[in-house]
Design goal:
By secondary structure, the protein is of the alpha/beta class. The chain is built from 13 helices and 16 strands. An 8-stranded parallel β-sheet has the order 9-8-7-3-2-1-11-10, with helices on one face. α5 runs parallel beside α6 and α10 runs parallel beside α12. The structure holds 1-deoxynojirimycin. The site of 1-deoxynojirimycin has 10 residues, from loops.
Length: 521
């Protein structure tokens, strides 16, 4: 076991801290800027740690901060063991980690194992000649005449192969041409990537979010996709059995460290049943994101279906659920809910009372909408700039940024900002603070069992129970008031989407789009 000292601020930790944690995703370019270049950075994040501690989250996941040509804004890594100068340097990272730990906040890094940047020295060496010592570190094949080796298409469109003029062979890239896939069948790659984990674990990071980690194992025959799905990229379907041994190897690296370093995997397979094997026997990923809630219409039936499905599948002791309403790849939830703040508030009550670890995306606690990005300002090859817009901190332009940021602000920054919402007891930010504080003091909400109860049409009702502690959570997904939701007496509203409902005796009535947490009176 290594490295007790760097966790000095995290005394008395329970094992499996990540089960009761709430994790906050920061998209570093858009969080906070300390040096006025219009791009967020590590010192900027450090300046907002008190905000995060007051919000009540337990851990922070940083989207990639490594050196990168930024073709995919950091998901094209050219050095896994350094910091891109736009964000700072290793010394700035060490300061941020220490300051976070001193506040009891853990730090999780993004780790991008499936592909590097085409400018990573490994790839430059690999593409230099067919005889290069690192040729086999990437996936090189001969084409069929002028056609690529197989029919796979890239997640960003077009063939997943690019022909290299110098050597005449094609290399695989499931994402951009600037993101060549590593060949995890090569032992040198496995070893080098394990070393990148150790580099950060030795520095004291608390874990990783592993980018599209289900893609790392590949059938070396690279078979064509069946004709009926040939136009779809394989990122949503690739489910190769050989990946599991690689995940066990990765897990063994983490398990060599104290303090339960965690790995949460992005596995973009659509059916929750396909996620379960990625937990292995408790020897693969600690958690796998369940993205189901990001794709649901605002109906009680849809949410009940997704929660029931997860409950049936993710109830074994090792398959701890992991929930998310939004991230840097998807529209923000308020935008998905046609701008409805009420629905976004109710969704927050659900997210923070489910069984499993919730991940928040920076700015959802402010109820931000996606920014309107004029065509001329679009930067992301995947069209995802809207949800990646900068966080407004203050009420007056430039909203806590020293200069104009790299993307436009979300709508209404003068109203939707941390300063204004901190001062309003009934703001979205204050709702998140109340929900996080309640979750923190309730073992039932953090770790208790989950069971759905019958409820009137258009509403959802479930219980969380641990020992003698019981909470009920009720939500109305309709635009009309509903009565008769949990009609039994003896309940009090402990938290609600709006402040005025809190503390009252429960009478069974939910207003339109209202959600409540009930405790015994
Ligand atoms: C998933 C990441 O979340 C996304 O932002 C990125 O473009 C792809 N993986 C490729 O790394």
């Amino acid at each position: 076991m290594r490295d007790g000292a760097v966790h000095a601020g995290l005394k008395d930790v329970e094992p499996a801290w990540w089960r009761s944690a709430v994790v906050y995703q920061i998209y570093p370019r858009s969080f906070a800027d300390s040096d006025g270049d219009g791009v967020g950075d590590l010192a900027g994040i450090g300046s907002r740690l008190d905000y995060l501690a007051a919000l009540g989250v337990d851990a922070v996941w940083l989207s990639p901060i490594y050196p990168s040509p930024m073709a995919d804004f950091g998901y094209d890594v050219s050095d896994y063991t350094d910091i891109d100068p736009v964000f700072g340097d290793l010394a700035a990272f060490d300061v941020l980690l220490a300051e976070a730990h001193a506040r009891g906040l853990r730090i999780i890094l993004d780790w991008v194992p499936n592909h590097t940047s085409s400018r990573h020295p490994w790839f430059l060496e690999s593409r230099s000649s067919r005889d290069s010592a690192k040729r086999d570190w990437y996936v090189w094949r001969d084409g069929h005449g002028d056609n690529p080796p197989n029919n796979w298409v890239s997640a960003f469109g077009g063939p997943a192969w690019t022909r290299d003029g110098a050597t005449g062979q094609w290399y695989l890239h499931l994402f951009l041409e600037e993101q060549p896939d590593l060949n995890w069948a090569n032992a040198g790659v496995v070893d080098a990537m394990h070393q990148t984990l150790r580099f950060w674990l030795d520095r004291g990071v608390d874990g990783f979010r592993a980018d599209v980690v289900h893609l790392i194992g590949k059938d070396e025959a690279l078979p064509d996709q069946p004709a009926e799905v040939a136009q779809l990229d394989i990122v949503g379907t690739h489910d190769y059995a050989g990946t599991h041994a690689l995940l066990r190897g990765i897990r063994a690296v983490l398990d060599d460290y104290d303090q339960e370093r965690v790995m949460v995997g992005e596995v973009t397979l659509s059916s929750p049943s396909k996620l379960v094997p990625y937990y292995g026997q408790g020897d693969e990923l600690h958690m796998v994101f369940n993205f189901a809630l990001m794709h649901l219409p605002w109906t009680a039936e849809a949410f009940a279906g997704a929660l029931d499905a997860a409950d049936g599948l993710l109830s074994s002791p090792v398959a701890w659920p992991c929930w998310v309403l939004s991230n840097h790849d998807q529209p923000r939830q308020r935008s998905r809910f046609s701008g409805s703040e009420e629905q976004a508030r109710a969704a927050a009550v659900l997210l923070l009372t489910l069984r499993g670890t919730p991940f928040l995306f920076a700015g959802e606690e402010l109820g931000l909408l996606d920014a309107d990005i004029p065509d001329a300002a679009r930067l992301d090859p995947g069209g995802r700039d809207g949800s990646r817009a900068p966080i407004p901190w203050d009420a007056a332009a430039p909203y806590g940024w020293p200069s104009r940021p790299w993307l436009p602000f979300p709508p209404e920054p003068g109203l939707r900002n941390a300063e204004t919402e901190s001062a309003d007891p009934d703001s979205m930010l204050q709702l998140y603070r109340r929900l996080l504080a309640l979750r923190k003091r309730s073992g039932a909400l953090q770790l208790g069992s989950w069971r759905r109860r019958d409820a009137p049409e258009g509403t959802l009702l479930y219980e969380r129970r641990r020992g003698d502690e019981l909470r009920l959570v009720a939500a109305n997904f309709t635009a009309a008031a509903v009565s008769g939701v949990e009609a039994s007496a003896g309940w009090r509203v402990e938290a609600a989407t709006h402040l005025d409902a809190e503390g009252r005796r429960w009478g069974g009535d939910l207003a339109a789009d209202q959600a409540v947490i009930l405790a015994r009176d």
